[in-house]
Amino acid sequence: MTETLTAGTLHGAHHATKSLKRSFLTMTMEQDRWSRVKGRLRSSVGEDVYTSWFARMDLEGVQDESVRLSVPTRFLKSWIQAHYAERVLSCWQAEMPEVHRIDLTVRSAVRPVAQPKEAPVPVETRRMPTPELRSTATAPVSANHDALGGSPLDPRLTFASFVVGRSNTLAHAAARQVAEGRRGDPVMFNPLYIHAGVGLGKTHLLQAVTWAGNSGNERKVLYLTAEKFMYGFVAALKTQTALAFKEALRGIDVLVIDDLQFLQGKSTQAEFCHTLNALIDAGRQVVIAADRPPSDLESLDDRVRSRLAGGLVVEMGSLGEELRHGILKSRVAAARAHHATFEVPEEVLHYLARTITHNGRDLEGAINRLLAHSKLNNRPVTLEMAEHEVRDLVRPQEPKRIKIEDIQRVVARQYNVSRSDLLSSRRTANVVRPRQVAMYLAKTLTLRSLPEIGRRFGGRDHTTVLHAVRKIEALVSKDNALSEEVESLKRQLQE
C-alpha cells in the first residue's frame, strides 16, 4: 500500500513538473513575442510617443485570437483605444497573424501596481485640504504620473552638471531647496518662477529638480512643457477623459512646467489656473520657467499672472565670462569621460569664454565641434583650429533686454516725477510730457504691443499710446533739446 501510494505521488509530481515546464515555456514565449511587439511599436510611433503612452503597458496573457494587455490608468486606456488601437493590433499581427482582438484593461482595478517604487501612498498620509483634491486620494501616485507621461528628460541635466555663477546663484539655491524637500515639509516658495533668455539654464534647473525629486522616491515630480500640458488637456477633452486628466495632474507632489510663455487657449489657461490654485492650496510645490517675468506674459489671464507673481520670481541673468569659462571646463570634462585623450588648452578655453557670449548652448556646441574635428582628423585642439571652427558662433553682443518698469523708473528720475505720477490720470504739463516720452521709449525699445503698453501705464487705451508715440516722433525731428534727452535716456537704459 505504501509503495503504491509513493509511486502514485511520484507520478503526480512528474506530471505537475511537466505542466509547470510547459507553463513556463509558454510564458517565456509570450514575453519574447511581447518584447518584439514593443520593439515594433517603438519603431512605429517614435521614442517620445512610446515613452509617454506605452512604457507602462504590460502583457497579461494570450488566449486563442485575443491578447490581454493592461495599463495603470483609465486615462491611458481611453487614449490608447482612441488613437493607437489599430497600431497595437497590427504590431501583434506581425508576430502572430492569428490575433484579431486586443483587450485592454486598467491594471490598478485588478491588482496593485507592479513595481514597488511606484506603490500607492496610503490615503491617510496625503494632505487634502480642499474638496477638489479629495477625489485623487484613492488613486495611486503612479497612476497620476503615468496619466500624463511627462515630457522627455535629458539624463545630463542634473544638479551635478549645473555650473553655478553670480547670475544664477539664487535660482540654483531655490531649485535645490525645492528638490531636497520631503513630503509633509512646509513649502517655502510657491510657485517658484524662474525666467531667463534662451540658453541660460532654465530647462537645466527644472530637469535637475525633476531628477533629484524623483530619485528620492518619496515625492512624485512631473516635468511638462507648456506644449505637452496643452496637448494632454486637449486630448483629454476630445476623448472625454478630462476628469481623469485633472485628477492625475492634481495628485502630483511637485509639478514642473517649462516654457510657460507658449501656453495658449482660453480653456487651457483656465484649467492651468485651476490646477495651479488647487496644488498651491493643497501645499504641493509648483515650479515654472519662462523667458520673461509673469507681468510680461501678455497672453496669460490676469489671475494667472497674479498667482505666479505671488511666489518667488527669480531672474537668471546673462552668463559672465567667468561662468562661461566654468561651463566650458565642465563640458570638456564630460566629453573626456567618453574620449579620454580629448584635451582643450587653457588658452583656447579663455578664447571661447571671451568671444562666445550668446548662451550656454553655443558654448556646448563649440566644444562638440572641437571634439569632432579633433577625433575625425586626428589632430590636437589648437587656438587656430578653434578660431576657424567656431567663427559663426562669435556673434555681436546681444542688446540688453529692456523692461517697461526700467523705462518708467529712468524717465521718472530724469524728469523729477514719481513712477506713480506716470501711471496716474494727472494731466499737468510736468507729467504729460514725461509720460509720453516713456510710452514712446516703451514702443521703440521693447517688443510690447500698444495695448500692453497702455495696460502698463495705468490701464490706458492703445490709442492713447499711439498718440504719444506719434507726438514724440514729431517733436524729436524738430526739437534738438528733446532729441538729446531721448538719446540720453536710451543710453542709460542700454548700459
Layout of secondary structure:
Layout (H helix, E strand, L loop, with lengths): L1 H44 L1 H7 L4 E6 L2 E6 L2 H10 L1 H11 L5 E6 L24 H4 L6 H8 L20 H11 L12 E4 L6 H14 L5 E5 H13 L3 H9 L3 E5 L7 H16 L3 E6 L11 H8 L2 E4 L5 H16 L9 H10 L4 H18 L5 H7 L14 H11 L4 H5 L5 H17 L4 H7 L5 H15 L3 H15 L1
Parallel strand pairs: 2-3, 4-7, 4-8, 5-6, 6-7
Antiparallel strand pairs: 1-2
Please tell me about this protein's structure:
With 495 residues, the protein is of the alpha/beta class. The radius of gyration is 30 Å and the shape is globular. The protein contains 22 helices and 8 strands. The chain has helices spanning 2-45, 47-53, 74-83, 85-95, 131-134, 141-148, 169-179, 202-215, 226-238, 242-250, 266-281, 302-309, 321-336, 346-355, 360-377, 383-389, 404-414, 419-423, 429-445, 450-456, 462-476, 480-494, and strands at 58-63, 66-71, 101-106, 192-195, 221-225, 254-258, 285-290, 312-315. It has 4 domains: 25-109, DnaA, N-terminal domain (GMP Synthetase, Chain A, domain 3), CATH 3.30.300.180; 131-315, Rossmann fold, CATH 3.40.50; 321-393, Helicase, Ruva Protein, domain 3, CATH 1.10.8.60; 404-494, Orthogonal Bundle (Chromosomal Replication Initiator Protein Dnaa, Chain: A), CATH 1.10.1750.10. The strands form 2 sheets. Strands 5-6-7-4-8 form a 5-stranded parallel beta sheet, with helices on both faces. The protein has a 3-stranded mixed beta sheet with strand order 1-2-3.
